Amino acid sequence: MTARIRKRTGQFFRMRRFKTQVKSVTHTSSTILGEAVARATPVPIASRIRGLSDRSMAWLFITPAIALLLAVNIFPLIWAIYLSFTNFRANRPNAALENVGLSNYSRVLNDPNIWQAMQTTAHFVFWTILLQTLIGFSLAYLIDRKFRGHAFWTTIILVPMMLSPAVVGNFWRFLYQPQIGLFNHIVSFLTGIPPSSFEMLGSVRLSPWAIIIVDTWMWTPYVMLICLAGLRSIPDYIYEAAEVDRASLWRQFWSITLPMALPFIMLAVLFRGIENFKMFDMVTLLTGGGPGSTTEVASITLKREAFESWRTGRASAFAIILFVAVFGLANIYVKALNKVKQR
Amino acid sequence: MSSINTAHSVVEPSRTSKRIAATIVIAYAVITMIPLAWIVLTSFKSPPDSISYPPKIVFQPTLEGYCNLFTTRTRQTSDYIASLGAPTSTCDEITRSRNMVIAGPSNYWPRFQNSLVIAFGSTFLAVSLGTLAAYGFSRFKVPLAEDLLFFILSTRMMPPIAVAIPIYLMYRQLGLSDTALGMILLYTAVNVSLAVWLLKGFIDEIPREYEEAAMIDGYTRMQAFFKVVLPQATTGIAATAIFCLIFAWNEYAFAVLLTSGAAQTAPPFIPTIIGEGGQDWPAVAAGTTIFVVPILVFTILLRKQLLRGITFGAVRK
Amino acid sequence: MTAQPPVPSKQKRPFFLRRGPMENIATGLIGLGFLMLFQPFLLIFYTWSLVTLLAGTLMFIIVSKFPE
Fold first, then answer.
1. pTM here?
2. Which subunits sit against C, judged by 3+ Cβ pairs under 8 A?
3. Number of domains, chain C
4. Predicted interface score ipTM higher than 0.85
């Protein structure tokens, strides 16, 4: 039985080989060398070389990864889209499922609390990106002076971004303690304000800045690394030419350095934008959205809707809204990625 | 790129500017290290020292944090403790000096093991699938290749909580919630996108002529892949694997929503470590230190590939 | 301003069928969607931000298939 199948498949493959061979007379997709060898050698070897453009072979390599992504990412996504049109509640899986049309979306998009969460997210995204870009680019510019030991210090600076945001957030909670925390004592040492006179995590005014400080500490190295790549991609001869033209350093910076590094800066900004837009872990552990809801960013609101209020349908609609926003940014990000790739 | 760096080169920064740059960068590096240094310091403090006002920089180092991290303790009367024999270990001794006895191991080590199993399992799967797919995209004409690659990348960009809602329901149906297998599958899916993009860059750099020569010598496509391409791509595969490992190691959102006990990893567990009367900061710090040290080692190993990793292989320097 | 070459050798496609300018418009639309999502002034803008984002994203996907 198996032998027969093997024989059949053998025939099948021989047929395919024949077909591809016929095709290759008109198509010249492989290299010149391959083509020349292919014409001169008997069928089996020739087909192996032309196998380079073999479709079934390509699918064999790609399908497992795609299948996994379809099962674990796309199928759930479609399910979420379906749920977003229903009144499903995950804590009552046996309740009658009702189609509610677009009302989940209209509720989410008219809910002042969720709108407020979006503004909190916006504040967080805006300030983290601004600070990270300013500090990150300045650091990259300084490291590009190539002083002795710059490689070592760069590695040291990069460490925070490799850590777990959750574990880091949890530990910064300790650093921010008003009585015993190091942060308050350092601030008091520098400014003279008594260390227990302010609470970074407990005050409505300061807590948004507490999460911004931690995120900036953690992700400035990311922006710095990409900016450094941008600065290093500028060829020396451009500066040499500018020097010949007696352009001042100031002028060189604004008309050479910055414009040429801009695609890289954009890349870093877009990626940080996407990541901070969906920020969850670090903020959860630092403030949990509090005090009140002053640091309740979008993902935390979503988590509360989905896993505390159990309004799964409405949470799904909110999730789809966040997803659409991120997906739009991701399109722009890939465009920026391709722009940088050409350099 | 081939310009010669001589002392009078116009693009070589001056000595003073180098010195200023070095000062600022080193100052930043030192400041950025303070929180990390504080974690390590705190892990060697005794609980009273860790919450002293003002914070203590000089203190008597002790292993109490590490002992508390790995054990659960119960308070006993001093008579009972005196009736016990001589302490069997350092931890035993430290615990008894606090009028407590070790009741048993804590959950930290099982959670740490979960982290290891899930991180390594998902990394292995993601890198295997990723290498195959990357080779496919690199060497064959795949219809709609650009769109497929974008689709693959976009799955990584999805907000974790948005994905977690349907995954939670799906896993509940399939009996995968709070299992290591479920977490491995999930992390593999998130990591496979990074693996495909990174490895495609690495495989693109291996000349096709190597495989073509091998295939003229009678290798099949598969043999050429395993015996020619894979050995050439070892560095890339190793770097990719470390990136996947770090992601799975650090992940929190999925872990906290989809696991609660048996398959819980270390990140959701560490914040829940509490002692008597509030958070036991030395134990938390000890847990954090043990959790973070592997990452430090990997960062140093990866420093040349970091840029590639964070830009999905687009920037190669 | 130098004199333009009188007749281009190749017929140029109108801008709404070329990738470059249309992609920029789609990017602008997505950016506008984000501003609407994030602004603290009018609830109505927030309400319609999803539609804007969706339109921008769909447009981006479609026009990225256009030739340069």
1. 0.86
2. A
3. 1
4. yes
